[in-house]
Amino acid sequence: MSRLVYVLNGPNLNLLGKRQPHIYGHETLADVEADCRKLAGELGLELRFHQSNREYEIIDWVHEARETAGGIVINPAAFTHTSVAILDALNTFDAPVIEVHISNVHKREAFRHHSYVSLRADGVIAGLGTQGYQLALRRVAKLIDEKKAPAA
Ligand code: DQA
């Protein structure tokens, strides 16, 4: 299986570090990307790291990943709670999908408690801050490795 992993980020995450730091922390998305790239190197993964405020761009990256990638880590941000279209796109992707939220969405407003993306995600990480991305990458690497391992 391909060791290419897409890390996709939804709307407003470009403002990470400036946006409600009491909720999302002080790290910027560039910091998150740098940490992900470092870890990906250690895990032998190749990374495509993207952010968009536009739903269709996220869908297009999922379509691109279908052709090439061994996994997707996605923080769909507010699209988590609204986007059947992103769910439909992820349902066309055959490899592991891990959903990440920096904040604990279950401790927040009721509208954040429902996730369309969770209907497809193989795992969900919420409330572990930006460390959630690292843990998600480790999980994807493990699932890729297990797929490669010969049957016992
Ligand atoms: C978020 C949680 C979402 O509810 C919110 O809309 C975001 C970020 C998180 O990472 O905690 O933009 O996905």
UniProtKB/TrEMBL annotation:
Enzyme Commission number(s) of this protein: 4.2.1.10
Binding site for substrate: N75, H81, D88, I102, S103, R112
Biological processes, Gene Ontology terms: amino acid biosynthetic process; aromatic amino acid family biosynthetic process; chorismate biosynthetic process; quinate catabolic process
Keywords: Amino-acid biosynthesis, Aromatic amino acid biosynthesis, Lyase
Enzyme class: lyase
Catalytically driven reaction(s): 3-dehydroquinate = 3-dehydroshikimate + H2O
Active site, per annotation: Y24, H101
Site keyed Transition state stabilizer: positions: R19
Alphabetized GO MF terms: 3-dehydroquinate dehydratase activity
UniProt-listed CDD domains: DHQase_II
Classification via Pfam families: DHquinase_II (PF01220)
Pathway: Metabolic intermediate biosynthesis; chorismate biosynthesis; chorismate from D-erythrose 4-phosphate and phosphoenolpyruvate: step 3/7
InterPro entries on file: DHquinase_II, DHquinase_II_CS, DHquinase_II_sf
PANTHER family (alphabetical): CATABOLIC 3-DEHYDROQUINASE (PTHR21272)
UniProt record similarity statement: Belongs to the type-II 3-dehydroquinase family.
Subunit note: Homododecamer.
Its biological purpose: Catalyzes a trans-dehydration via an enolate intermediate.
The protein, known as: 3-dehydroquinate dehydratase
Organism: Alsobacter metallidurans
Gene: aroQ2
